[in-house]
C-alpha cells in the first residue's frame, strides 16, 4: 500500500543543499564514494546523504569522517559494514535501510550518541548483541527483515520511544519489553503473533500500537491498562470478539478492527469518548448496537463487507460523522434519521439491496459524494436535487460523476421522483458473489493459522529455509501507517 517512511526522511529535506557541513550526494548513480568528500575539512562535515546510489562497499578512509552526526546510506547495494563504523562516535542518526546487509558489526555498540537507527529492508536474521547497549537510542526501525525474535535484553534500551518491527516472523516478545517505559510507538504489523503479549500490556506509555496482519485470536482483558493509547490497529487478525474492557482506553481516537471474524460488538466499544475513526469492514457483523449513538465524536466509520441487513435509528445521532462506508452489505433500506448527519461528506452504499432512498437524505447538507451503485433502485427522491453533490454513482461503469437527473412520477405511488437513463438499476442478486468473498476470506484466515501451527513443528533449519524462500518468492503484505485514512 505504501513505501515506509524512514525515521530519517527529514534528513533528505535538510540536506537538499551542500556546504562544508552538509553534503547531499543522493540519487547520483554513484558506484563509489566521491573522493572529493575527503578533501573537505573532516572536522566540518556533519551531515552526509549518499542514499539512492549503487554503493557496494565503503572505503577505509570513509571512517575518518569522525565528526559525522547524520549519515544516510539507504537504498544502496551494501553487503557489509566495516567494524571501523565504531570510529564514528559522534553519529546521532544512521540509516542503512534497503541494502543487502546480512550482518552488522558487533562493535556498533560504541555509537553511544546514536538516537535514530534504521536497518530495515535488509537480509538480517539476527541483531548484534551490542545493539541493546545503545543507551541513547530513541528510534529503532527493523522493518522487513528475517527476525524471529528480538534480543532478550531489549528492555535495556531505556530511552527508546519508537520501535518498528513490521514484516518479520515474530511469534512473541521478550519479557524485558515491559521495561521500555518511554516507548510511545510500537509497530508489530505483519508478523506471526497469536496473542497480545503480556509484556506489551505493561508498556503503559504506548500511544500508537500496530498489530495488524498477525494471527491474534483474542485480546487480554489487561488491555485496559494501556490507558494512554490513542491509535490501535488490530486489522487482519482472527479476533472473534472484543472485550468489554476496551472501553477503559478513554484516550483512543483510532481503532482498526477490519478483516477479522467479528460477529458481534460489545456495547461498551461505543463508549469511547475520544473515538474519531472506527474501521469494522470485512467481518461478519449482522447488526450494530444502539449504543452506537454514544460515539458523538466519531468522524469516520467503515463497516463495508459485512452482513448488515439494517441500521439502528441511533446512527442519526453521530453528529460529527463525515465519512460513512456501508458498501457490500445486505441493506434493503436506510433509516430516515441518516438525514440528521449534517456533517456527512461521503456516503458509500454500493453493493446492497436498497429499493429506495428516504426523502430525509436532503438533511445531509454537507454531502458531496454519494455511491448508490449496484442496488435495486428504480428512482431517487426529489429532495436530492437540493444536495450539492460532486459525484453521484448509480453504476460502476458510469462515464460521468454526475448523471443527468429528470423529474418523473413513480408509477406505484404517483409521487414525484427523480430518474435518469441509469435507472432502474439491474436487480441482479449478488448473494453468490458475497458468499464467494466470505468463503475466500475464511479460507485465507484458516490457512494463515494452519501455517503458524506448522511452523511450531518445523525444525530450526527447515524453518530458516522456509522463511527465506517465502520472503523472496512472494510479496508480503505491507500496511503503511497513515492514521485516520
Biggest pleated sheet:
17 strands, parallel
* CATH architecture label name of the largest domain: Alpha-Beta Horseshoe
Q: Which regions contain 5 or more consecutive residues with pLDDT less than 50? A: 1-16, 455-485
The string of secondary-structure elements, in order, is HEEEEEEEEHEEEEEEEEEEEEHH
CATH class of the largest domain: Alpha Beta
Strand content: 5-15%
Rg over CA atoms, rounded to whole Å, is 27 Å
CATH fold title of the largest domain: Leucine-rich repeat, LRR (right-handed beta-alpha superhelix)
CATH superfamily of the largest domain: Ribonuclease Inhibitor
Q: Which structural class do you get from the secondary structure elements?
A: alpha/beta
- Which descriptor suits the 3D outline? elongated
User: Tally the helices: what do you get?
Assistant: 4
| Count of discrete domains | 3
Report the helical percentage: 10-25%
Total strands: the figure is: 20
Would you tell me the overall average pLDDT?
Answer: 87
* Distance separating the two termini: 12 Å
Description:
This protein is of the alpha/beta class and 485 residues long. It has three domains: 143 residues, Ribonuclease Inhibitor (Leucine-rich repeat, LRR (right-handed beta-alpha superhelix)), CATH 3.80.10; 185 residues, Ribonuclease Inhibitor (Leucine-rich repeat, LRR (right-handed beta-alpha superhelix)), CATH 3.80.10.10; 142 residues, Ribonuclease Inhibitor (Leucine-rich repeat, LRR (right-handed beta-alpha superhelix), Alpha-Beta Horseshoe), CATH 3.80.10. Helix content is 10%, strand content 13%. It contains four helices and 20 strands. The strands form two sheets. The chain has a 17-stranded parallel beta sheet, with no helix packed on it. A three-stranded antiparallel beta sheet has the order 17-20-19, with no helix packed on it. Helix 2 links the parallel strand 8 and strand 9. The longest helix is centred in the C-terminal third of the chain and has 26 residues. The radius of gyration is 27 Å and the shape is elongated. The two termini are 12 Å apart. 38% of the residues are buried. The N terminus and C terminus are likely disordered.
Amino acid at each position: 500500500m505504501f513505501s515506509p517512511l524512514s525515521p530519517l526522511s527529514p534528513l533528505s529535506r535538510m540536506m537538499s543543499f551542500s556546504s562544508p557541513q552538509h553534503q547531499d550526494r543522493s540519487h547520483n548513480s554513484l558506484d563509489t564514494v566521491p573522493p572529493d568528500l575527503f578533501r573537505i575539512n573532516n572536522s566540518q562535515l556533519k551531515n552526509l546523504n549518499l542514499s539512492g546510489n549503487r554503493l557496494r562497499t565503503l572505503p577505509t578512509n570513509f571512517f575518518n569522517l569522525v565528526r559525522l552526526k547524520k549519515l544516510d546510506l539507504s537504498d544502496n547495494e551494501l553487503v557489509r559494514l566495516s567494524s571501523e563504523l565504531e570510529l564514528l562516535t559522534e553519529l546521532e542518526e544512521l540509516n542503512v535501510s534497503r541494502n543487502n546487509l546480512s550482518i552488522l558489526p558487533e562493535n556498533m555498540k560504541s555509537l553511544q550518541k546514536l538516537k535514530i537507527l534504521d536497518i530495515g529492508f535488509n537480509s538480517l536474521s539476527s541483531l548484534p548483541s551490542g545493539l541493546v547497549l545503545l543507551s541513547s537510542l530513541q528510534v529503532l526501525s527493523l522493518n522487513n527483515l528475517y527476525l524471529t525474535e528480538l534480543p532478550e535484553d531489549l528492555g535495556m534500551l531505556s530511552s527508546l520511544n519508537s520501535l518498528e518491527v513490521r514484516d518479520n516472523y515474530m511469534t512473541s516478545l521478550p519479557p524485558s519489553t515491559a521495561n521500555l517505559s518511554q516507548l510511545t510507538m510500537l509497530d508489530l504489523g505483519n508478523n506471526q503473533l497469536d496473542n497480545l503479549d503480556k509484556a506489551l500490556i505493561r508498556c503503559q506509555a504506548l500511544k500508537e500500537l500496530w498489530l495488524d496482519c498477525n494471527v491474534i485470536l483474542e485480546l487480554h482483558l489487561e488491555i485496559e491498562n494501556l490507558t494512554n493509547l490513542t491509535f490501535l490497529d488490530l486489522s487482519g487478525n482472527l479476533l472473534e470478539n472484543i472485550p468489554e474492557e476496551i472501553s477503559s482506553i478513554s484516550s483512543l481516537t483510532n481503532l482498526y478492527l477490519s478483516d477479522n471474524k467479528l460477529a458481534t460488538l460489545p456495547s461498551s466499544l461505543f463508549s469511547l469518548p475520544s473515538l474519531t475513526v472506527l474501521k469494522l469492514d470485512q467481518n461478519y457483523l449482522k447488526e450494530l448496537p444502539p449504543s452506537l449513538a454514544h460515539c458523538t465524536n466519531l468522524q469516520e466509520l467503515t463497516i463495508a463487507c459485512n452482513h448488515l441487513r439494517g441500521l439502528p435509528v441511533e446512527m442519526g445521532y453521530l453528529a460529527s460523522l463525515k465519512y460513512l462506508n456501508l458498501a457490500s452489505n445486505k441493506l434493503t433500506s436506510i433509516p430516515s434519521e441518516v438525514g440528521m448527519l449534517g456533517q456527512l461528506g461521503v456516503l458509500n452504499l454500493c453493493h446492497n439491496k436498497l429499493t429506495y432512498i428516504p426523502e430525509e437524505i436532503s438533511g445531509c447538507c454537507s454531502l458531496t459524494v454519494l455511491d448508490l451503485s449496484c442496488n435495486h433502485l428504480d428512482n431517487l427522491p426529489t429532495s436530492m436535487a437540493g444536495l450539492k453533490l460532486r459525484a453521484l454513482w448509480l453504476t460502476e461503469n458510469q462515464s460521468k460523476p454526475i448523471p443527468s437527473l429528470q423529474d418523473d412520477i413513480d408509477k406505484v405511488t404517483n409521487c414525484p421522483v427523480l430518474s435518469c437513463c441509469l435507472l432502474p438499476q439491474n436487480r441482479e442478486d449478488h448473494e453468490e458473489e458475497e458468499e464467494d468473498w466470505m468463503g475466500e476470506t475464511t479460507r485465507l484466515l484458516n490457512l494463515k493459522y494452519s501455517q503458524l501451527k506448522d511452523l511450531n513443528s518445523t525444525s530450526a533449519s527447515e524453518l530458516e529455509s522456509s522463511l527465506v524462500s517465502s520472503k523472496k518468492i512472494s510479496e508480503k503484505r505491507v500496511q503503511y501507517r497513515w492514521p485516520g485514512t
